[in-house]
Amino acid sequence: MAESSVPSRERIVAGAADLISRRGLSAASIRELAKHAKAPLGSTYHYFPEGKQQLATEAVRYAAGAVNRVLRKELGAGPVAGLRAFLALWRGIVVESDFRAGCPVLAVAVEEPPADEIPPALVAAAEAFEGWERLLADMLREHGVGPDPATELAALVVAAVEGATAMCRAKRSAEPLDQVARQLEAVITGALGPSV
After folding, report:
1. Distance CA 137, CA 33 (A)
2. What is the C-alpha separation between 45 and 52, in angstroms, rounded?
3. Is the pTM of this model over 0.85?
């Protein structure tokens, strides 16, 4: 097999993130995750010897990192620009997938964990949400919003966007994200005061 046709670890992780965003974690076996990434099952186990939970954890971290990069870049232009980019990212995903894909972080977060453990993928999901909230809150504080309101507003943004993304899939319409976008922009603009 030629070197270029061997699936990379990152391609497997990206494929897993995509499939989890479509089916959820419980509905996707390691075999299906490998197939979706167009990777041999042996290569998948080579990169992820601990199996599905290891791959799911990496998929969540991959998705979180992709969103972090967009937020960091766009928040440089201010909180409203960052909000718009965050919303546009999720709107693009749901619309381009014909409302079949959502957020792999949310998909993992809503799965019922085993009674006696907290799976690493769920920990990674919590870290992803916290990271997005922290980026948004930091930018709001830099623009004069107080520490507590900035933290609460950042949590509102992440929760509203994640919820609206799920609603878009259920309703097969981008309208929930568009409605949330208008309201969140008004709330952020109000929090920033008249200088915006």
Report:
1. 34
2. 9
3. yes
Give the 3-state secondary structure of residue 195.
Answer: coil
* pLDDT tens string 136-152: 999 999 999 999 999 99
Reference 94, options 35, 177, 25, 38; nearest CA is 177
Decide: 121 and 108 in contact? Cβ < 8 Å: yes
Q: Which two tokens stand for residue 80?
A: 């409203």
* 39 within 8 A of 11, measured Cβ to Cβ: yes
Task: List pLDDT tens digits, range 44-90.
Answer: 989 999 989 999 999 999 999 999 999 999 999 999 999 999 999 99
End-to-end CA distance of the chain: 57
Which residue is associated with the tokens 């993992």? 108
Residue pair 49/25 in contact by the 8 Å Cβ criterion = no
**Amino acid present at 41:** L
Provide the residue count of the chain.
196
Quote the CA–CA distance of 12 and 10 in Å, as a whole number: 5
Distance CA 131, CA 20 (A): 20
Contact 147, 160 (CB under 8 A): no
